Amino acid sequence: MAILVLNLGSSSLKAAVFDASGTQRLWSNSHSGLSDVGAWLEPALAPWWDRLSRAGHRVVHGGERFRAPTPINASTLPELEALSPLAPLHNPPALAAIGWLQQRRPDLPQWACFDTAFHATLPEAAYSYAIPQALRRQGYRRFGFHGINHQHVAEQAPGPRLISVHLGAGCSVAAIAGGQCIDTSMGFTPMEGLVMATRCGSIDPGLLLALLQTGRDASDLGETLNHQSGLAGLSGLSGDWTELRAAAAQGHNGAQLAVEVFVHRLKAGIAAMAASLGGVDQIALTGGIGANDNQLLEQLQAEMRWLGSVQWLQIPADEEGMIARLISDQADRGFGAAVG
Question: Order of strands, edge to edge, in the sheet holding 52-59?
């Protein structure tokens, strides 16, 4: 028997099949674009349909309700749908894949694994915004994201004080003490924190108020901050890190500024996590940028020597493998999953 994992991002899909233990990857592939996911998956999974015993999905935002792998059924699905406005780039595509798989294999137990779940251990001081209590009681708080991969990194580098640095199209840092997350850079949505490919990261709320006062509405502002900011907005060229590295080396001023701001904010983010941990033993760079850009690793090592004796690592992201292991653990505990 085998486990299917579907990991839908904002513009692409990663699919993988693992053995029943969730430790051996039997097949994997990726697909750009989301408009024809079913048309691509149907033939791609043809050799595996009869072997699949369960499926797991990456769902970015689980809110306060979902803090562990959760079976997808008639009662949980509406709750998942209600969370879509909190992660509009990610949750809706995941729900579309869940619906497609329910139609194609209604007998197949499906599970949702949440990027927010690993951060459920955040202390109140780390997840609370300094806003009125009435708003905090309505659920306006920091959640954190990239938790599935941060958990994978924590398993690969189980030091007592670890900073996991996820750098890709989305970027975040997490402070992990003894395997548990105690602080992270993303907040109520995946927009807070570091500079990202097209997301702005943390900015002054007063700037948002000023923009709203010019007549821009929330929808327009969301489009700007989610899709036109970050590295793309800084450079005026692209949100692609590799392209910006090359352009910066050729003297492109916008690309040079984007790289400099990215690294400046990244160092501040790492330092903040070190402060939360009271020191750091390991710093692991992960994600498409973090695991592959040796120049960035060397720069951080040189410019952050003041942290003291630290083991720097590069660990490839593996959200699909982590999801498979989480789903396998649920099966081992005897938890079933109704579908419908």
Answer: 25-32, 12-19, 2-8, 52-59, 110-114, 70-71
β-bridge partners, 314:
285
What residues are annotated to the active site? 115
Residue 127 lies in a domain: no
Angle at 170 between CA 166 and CA 172, to 5 degrees: 40
Has residue 301 been placed in a domain? yes
Separation of alpha carbons 44 and 29, rounded Å: 9
Kindly state the DSSP code that residue 68 receives in the 8-state scheme: S
CA 302, 303, 308, 311 torsion-angle sign: negative
- Domain enclosing residue 192, as ranges: 158-314
- Both 232 and 109 in one domain: the answer is no
Residue found by looking up tokens 């490839």 in the block: 316
Query: Does residue 105 contact residue 61 with C-beta atoms inside 8 Å?
Result: no
Find all residues with CB under 8 Å of 268, minimum gap 6, and list them. none
Report the number of distinct structural domains present in the chain: 2
Beta-ladder partners of 311: 282
Q: Which residues pair with 114 in a beta bridge?
A: 59
d(CA 57, CA 91): 10
Q: Are 164 and 303 members of one domain?
A: yes
**Partners of residue 18 on adjacent β-strands:** 3, 25
Contact (Cβ atoms closer than 8 angstroms) between residue 136 and residue 144: no
Per the domain annotation, does 218 fall within a domain?
Answer: yes
**With contact defined as beta carbons under 8 Å apart, do 152 and 213 qualify?**
no
Task: Assess whether 171 and 306 both reside in one domain.
Answer: yes
Section 262-277 average pLDDT: 98
Residues 297 and 196 in one domain: yes
Instruction: Encode pLDDT of 68-123 as tens digits.
Output: 999 999 999 999 999 888 888 788 889 999 999 999 999 999 999 999 999 999 99
Residues 114 and 182 in one domain: no
Mean pLDDT to the nearest integer, 165-172: 96
What is the Cα gyration radius of the chain? 20
d(CA 207, CA 252): 27
Residue 340 falls inside a structural domain: no
In a shared domain, residues 324 and 296:
no
